[in-house]
Design a protein that fits this description.
It comes from Dietzia lutea. The chain is mainly beta and 168 residues long. Helix content is 9%, strand content 27%. A hairpin with a 2-residue loop joins strand 3 and strand 4. The N terminus is likely disordered. The structure holds FE2/S2 (inorganic) cluster.
Length: 168
């Protein structure tokens, strides 16, 4: 076909039901619809028709990489966070979760849920949960451990000096 791009033909249908095999092969409703049409005998989908199903699919999945954020500089006492626990603090208008996963090792995260911005709460020890839709995180490193959180909590810089922790 001189000068025209190759049409999406029935010879190469996308696999139907591939969504069950994980995020790497996730298929959106438009892709599934195109695959069903392409599988029908005698149906050839031209590119313009294939993209006109009326539903948009994200070009890329959301980032799953942990990010860093800052909050207004705030000082808290390290003694308030025993080893193996996490605690919530206010830093300006932000809410921060500070944890001590190992003796003398302090970590801090924004308490803003990476799903839709709920304020993550400390449930017990290092377990964090968002009250809005139930996403859970591990305060050891902020990783998301239960859906629907799409990525870990944002890291907040923290430094320790003389028993005082500076957040921000
Ligand atoms: S906003 Fe936190 S789970 Fe939805």
């Amino acid at each position: 076909m001189g000068g025209m791009s190759e049409p999406f033909s029935a010879a190469t249908p996308a696999p139907i039901g591939a969504a069950a095999s994980g995020p790497a092969t996730r298929v959106g409703p438009c892709t599934q619809r195109r695959a069903v049409l392409a599988a029908l005998p005698g149906i050839i989908l031209l590119p313009g028709i294939a993209s006109a199903c009326g539903m948009t699919e994200p070009a890329q999945p959301p980032s799953t990489v942990q990010q860093t954020t800052t909050v207004p500089a705030t000082t808290v006492s390290a003694a308030e966070i025993p080893v193996g626990t996490a605690k919530q603090f206010k830093a300006g208008d932000s809410t921060v979760i500070v944890a001590q996963p190992a003796e003398g090792e302090f970590v801090a995260y924004s308490a803003r849920c990476t799903h839709q911005g709920g304020v993550v709460q400390v449930i017990e020890g290092m377990t964090l949960r968002c009250p809005l839709h139930g996403a859970e995180y591990d305060a050891t490193d902020g990783r998301n451990t239960l859906a629907p959180a799409p990525r870990p909590l944002d890291v907040v810089p923290v430094s320790e000096s003389g028993g005082q922790l500076t957040l921000g």
